[in-house]
Write a structure and sequence with these properties.
The chain is mostly beta strands. Helices cover 0% and strands 46% of the residues. It is built from no helices and eleven strands. The strands form three sheets. It has a seven-stranded mixed β-barrel with strand order 1-6-4-10-9-8-11. A two-stranded antiparallel ribbon has the order 2-5. A two-stranded antiparallel sheet has the order 3-7. The chain is globular, with a radius of gyration of 14 Å.
Length: 146
């Protein structure tokens, strides 16, 4: 199916109830920044992340990046393996070694079925302290609680 069978604007943060955090571990580092990446974020605000999947972690300082939109100013910083699956939702906090790095902006499927690009909004494109073995946690942001 190419599009959602419903109006994606009807899906707000209030739709998503309590859920466990998604956990992962960095398995490879990337060192590339783009000014014209052309990411195309899918309309869906949520993605199920399965145990043992590997996905790319990207950051952007484009605060308007959102589902159905895109992002050009992007840094690819790592690949991570999901160690405990769950549901990731746009607006969720992403923690790197226990420190909030930013919030999920959306998902780009350019490289599927190999991996998904998980885009995180950050204040700058400055590379956070990250290493192979760093812990990733994605959890519901406190500001989205009902």
């Amino acid at each position: 199916m190419s599009g959602a069978p419903y109006d994606p604007r009807r899906i707000t943060s209030s739709v998503y109830g309590d859920r466990r955090p998604v956990l992962g571990e960095v398995v490879a580092l990337l060192h590339v920044t783009f000014d014209d990446r052309g990411l195309k974020l899918i309309n869906s605000k949520s993605r199920g992340l399965r145990e043992n999947e590997i996905h790319e972690l990207m950051i952007t300082d484009e605060q308007e990046a959102a589902p159905g939109g895109g992002a050009d100013h992007v840094s690819a910083i790592a690949f991570f393996e999901v160690s405990r699956g769950g549901l990731a939702v746009v607006g969720d906090d992403l923690l790197l070694d226990g420190v909030k790095m930013g919030e999920i902006a959306g998902y780009d499927m350019t490289h599927m079925p190999n991996h998904m690009n998980v885009l995180v909004k950050t204040e700058t494109l400055e590379r956070p302290p990250i290493r192979v073995g760093s812990r990733i946690e994605i959890h519901r942001t406190h500001k989205s609680l009902p």
